[in-house]
Every structure is written in C-alpha cells, then in structure tokens.
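Need residues for this backbone.
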C-alpha cells in the first residue's frame, strides 16, 4: 500500500507541475491550450518515452519558436543549460522518499524537521541523475533522521522506469516556461 501511495503522490505532484507550467506557458505566449498541446506533444512524448530530456532540445527549440513565438536565441541558450543543470525531478524524488519513509515507519515529523529535510533535498538534488544512482542521496537524507534508507531504495527500484519517464517529462515543462518568460522579457526590453 505504501508503494502505491508513493507512486500516486509522485504522479499527482508531476501532473500539478505540468498543469501549472502549461497554464503559465499559455498565458505568457497567448496560446490556446489546444494549440499548445499540439505543439508540445512530440517533445513531451519523446521525453516520456526516452526518459531523457536532452534529445528533446531540438524539437523544443523548433516548436517553441514556430508555435509560441519564442526567440530562438533564448531557447537555444535556456533549454540546454536548464535541462542539463537543474534537476527539478530530484527534489520531488528525494522529498517523497523522505515523507514516504516517515509515513511507512510511523515517524512523526515536526514542521522544522520537514523544512530541514526539504532544504537538504533541494541541495542534494543538484547531483541527481536517476533513481538508481541517487540511492546514496536517499541514504544521506534519511539516515540523519533515523529512517531506514535501504528499505526506501528497495521500494524505488521497481518504480524506476515509470518515475524516470514521468520526471523527465515533468522536467521539460518548467524549462519551456523559463524560455517563454525570458523571451517575452527580452521582447519588451527591445521595444
């Protein structure tokens, strides 16, 4: 039951991030949701299917310019840097590992403990690449709070294919929003 709960919470958070990003993207670029989804379909499918955001960069650059009017120079700069450096997906994974382990082992979490864990999660996520190689990060996060990290790593291994694909698709959307906001700002500055 706890494994299912962890998976559903992860999917819910990722859907919220994608929906929020889509709304912001449509507002910033003045694009309808239907047109936006048509334009973003291929890059998001590629991100989900491959579990890697890097191959989506050429498609994203082209689609953002063609369908959303985003400056190609901005997208050529923002997309590769953001996709390779910022790991939003790692924050979600580590935070859910912490909260999931605490709930599985009936450990009461105080607000200060949760805040500290989230700060540690954010700092550790900068070196995250995927679930299999981030197991040491989960240990670093859980052990100081007395939570059994090995159990959490063992629970995440079977979920790796699903979570990696979802995290990668989720990672692409906020990066596109960043490019759209930067492009709009540059257009305003140049006018």
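Answer:
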């Amino acid at each position: 039951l706890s494994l299912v709960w962890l998976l559903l919470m992860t999917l819910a958070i990722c859907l919220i991030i994608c929906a929020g990003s889509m709304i912001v993207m449509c507002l910033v670029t003045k694009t309808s949701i239907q047109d936006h989804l048509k334009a973003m379909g291929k890059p998001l499918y590629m991100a989900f299917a491959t579990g890697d955001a890097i191959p989506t960069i050429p498609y994203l650059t082209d689609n953002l310019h063609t369908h959303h009017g985003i400056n190609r120079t901005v997208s050529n700069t923002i997309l590769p840097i953001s996709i390779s450096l910022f790991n939003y997906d790692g924050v979600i994974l580590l935070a859910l590992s912490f909260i999931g382990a605490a709930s599985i082992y009936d450990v009461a979490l105080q607000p200060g403990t949760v805040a500290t864990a989230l700060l540690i999660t954010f700092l550790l996520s900068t070196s995250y690449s995927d679930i299999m190689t981030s197991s040491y990060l989960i240990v670093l996060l859980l052990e100081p709070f007395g939570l059994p990290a090995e159990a959490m790593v063992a629970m995440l291994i079977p979920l790796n294919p699903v979570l990696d694909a979802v995290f990668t698709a989720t990672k692409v959307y906020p990066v596109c929003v960043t490019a759209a906001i930067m492009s709009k700002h540059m257009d305003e500055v140049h006018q």
